[in-house]
Amino acid sequence: MERFKTLKDHVYDYIAEQIRDGALLPEKRVNENVICEELNISRTPVREALIQLAAEGVLENRARKGFVIKAMTQTDVKEIYAVIGILDGYAAKMACDSLTEQDYADMAFYIDAMELAIHSGNYEMYYKQQVIFHQLYINKCANNTLIDTIAKTKNKLLKKTYIEQNNENLKEVFSMTNNEHRKILELFKEKDKETLFHYIADVHWMPDYATYDMIV
Question: Quick check: 214 pLDDT over 60?
């Protein structure tokens, strides 16, 4: 069962989404007043959410400047990828017996949607569909702590906003990762839990992909 979310939790999710979508950029100050106005809420839950994001390493609280988005080095991103791979793989292993035929059909739909997005050069759509694809089985792992930990770890990754629509290298990488999505679905259907875990951890989230933030 999904845990109850406080107002602070909703603000946390909103800020994290703004960071992932590139609306809030590295080294830029987070304007608390703007967030209060956009969400029509008081300052307290916004401040609490910012403090939590700072404690998790997503933001930095700097003297005389306030909260700013923490920039990530390539080494930072690779280390996060390695951790996400293990967590994501474990979530998949735990969810394996809970997935239904409808879940398989939904995952196949998202894979086809990603394929269409790749061919049309719509990489923003690819990003959105791959998030849904992974979240489908993560939400079925029956471990709320694991679900929250994966989400918080992913929050540290800043989605790149400068993807060039005509970049053939990116198209090749996206096609390769989407083929991996097909393999993941195949392993789910076979209920091969150990192979599924290692494939996600050691192949799909391998740190070399960190050059292309949040595309897997």
Answer: no
